[in-house]
Amino acid sequence: MRAPYNETVMEHFRHPHNVGKIENPDGKATEGSPACGDMVSVYISVDDATKTLSDVKFESYGCASNIATGSIITELAKGKTLDEAKKITWKQASDALGGLPPIKAHCSVLAVEGLRAAIQNYEEKHGLIKDKKPTTLEVVRQRLRKVMDPLTGMGLVRAKLVQEIDVNDGVVKVVVDLPSGHQFASAIKQEIHEKLDTLWDIKEVVIDFIE
Amino acid sequence: MADKTVYLDNAAATRMDERVLEAMRPYLFDTYAVATSEFGYSLGIEAREALDEARETLAKALGASSEEFIFTSGSTESSNMAIKGVALALGEKKGKHLIVSAIEDFPVLHSAQALEKQGFQVTLLEVDGDGLVNLDRLRDAITDNTILVSIQHANQEIGTIQDIEAIGKVCREKGVVFHTDATHTFTRVGLDVSKVPVDLVTVAAHTIHGPKGIGGLYLRKGTPLTKWMDGGFQEFNLRAGLENIPGAVGFTRAAKLITPEETERLQAIRDHIIKRALTEIPHSTLNGHRSHRLPQNANVTFHFVEGESITLHLDMRGFAVSTGSACFSRSLEGSHVIYGIGGDHERAHGSIRFSLGRYNTMEEADAVVDALAEIVSELRSISPLGKEND
Fold this sequence. Notes:
The structure holds two protein chains of two kinds. Chain A is of the alpha+beta class. Chain A has two domains: 7-125, Alpha-Beta Complex (Sufe protein. Chain: A); 137-209, 2-Layer Sandwich (GMP Synthetase, Chain A, domain 3), CATH 3.30.300.130. Chain A has helices at residues 7-14, 64-77, 82-86, 90-96, 105-125, 137-145, 185-196; strands at residues 27-32, 39-47, 52-61, 162-168, 171-176, 204-209. In chain A, the strands form two sheets. Chain A has a three-stranded antiparallel beta sheet with strand order 1-2-3. Chain A has a three-stranded mixed beta sheet with strand order 4-5-6, with helices on one face. The radius of gyration of chain A is 18 Å and the shape is globular. Chain B is an alpha/beta fold. In chain B, 40% of the residues lie in helices and 14% in strands. Chain B contains 13 helices and 13 strands. In chain B, strand 3, helix 4 and strand 4 (121-125) form a beta-alpha-beta unit. Chain B is globular, with a radius of gyration of 22 Å. The chains are: A alpha+beta, B alpha/beta. The A-B interface holds A 1-4, 13-14, 16, 19-20, 30, 34-41, 59-67, 103-104, 106-107, 150, 181, 183-184, 186-187 and B 1-2, 113, 117, 304-309, 312, 315-316, 318, 325-328, 330-334, 345-346, 348-349, 381-385.
């Protein structure tokens, strides 16, 4: 048969590694994408002394690229220190899979975020998180980097689709350099909300398109 | 591709029947002239005769007369022509308001939305949980400015069949032009324009084992429609372009090959798939109306799993189906039809459409449900959802 993904991706999709739950995990997180509806749960076991990941497992309610990325990212993370594992990027996961179609970045980036969030969950439980920072333009820009442009697979900032950002009195305003009728406008809008709505000091997120 | 693909995506495209190709062959290799050459030489006369005969047969299948049937390049063009053609004809004279159902296929939906950008107002008429239009709601939505109502005969994804006669009567009562997209019902589900008050009907060959690239638009005599495909004087000077005579002949042959017996056979296969899927696979929901339903369509959501994963696993086992999952779509949005019937993201995410055709058998229906039961169970075992329900 001909598949829409390369053979490495298909192999991880057919026979995903590290699938399932860890009972009493040291850290866990569930990431969902309102843009495409996929969801990933990541469970970690941490060696407290060395701060390394002794086990990583995942569950996926998602498409082939989501499942394959869950499989590869758990492989990449096992045995790494928390700091090393946090730095694993979507690009590294995608490269290890021999490449994913850019339009699938949405579905596959969740596994990467799930791993980071599970580590953050462990760090929060162990008081390893620094103080809350107020939301600045830079914080918003950082988060928008993680919102993928489905056409290029790049973050919105790199894809030069963010025309304007404003943070004022708990209200974030983002202007996206796309027409509101654009094929991906609705998906991008939902994903921006997902990234910004949770900021602790933000009451409202306003997203505008250029026409 | 696997040798024996079990193809269950006949709403997207069908395998052409060999008999259709045989009917088309002379018009590709012998009588390849165009009908507009009829006054020049005999090949042109033969081409004209073939086109006229094809037109008459297809018009008759709708209960129409020949001069009310215009050949197009397919259902997308037919619906564009109907909606934009009526809007151009009546926009300045009568009003700028259109009504289309929220679950229309893209040619209708996006034609209406394109007109919206040109200053028209569009009402997206909501449907109920089974996909049916509410007649009172339709009546209330029609204003003095309404020029066109477009409501499909049957839905492309969930198969729900609308009461076109009742909808047509409301439109007639209010003096509004009525278009219906009959792409998925033509020759399978009866629609007789001599009895049903409908002004424009979209039909196409690709869903009935005919060639791709040929369709038609029924246009009731006297219906205002402005020509916008400019060029020559073909198709009663309503649609310019070289006549696709092999296509028209193939379309006609394909339409004649559909029999009530075949349609009944497909309906039995449909019912078998629905019954087995709903009873043997836990946490599954039928999408669309149970009885007002296309005979060749089944659509079921398997909760807690994602549609693209299901279709890929099915493909590995040699089955071709389609899904309303966002992951499957080029716009990364879940099916607007599933949302339209009040379904949430989750319902679209795991929805699978089975659409049947001439070459499907009851054995294939059993095989696909057997495969699905295993695949859904495997995918659920790795899903974070639904475990508490097991």
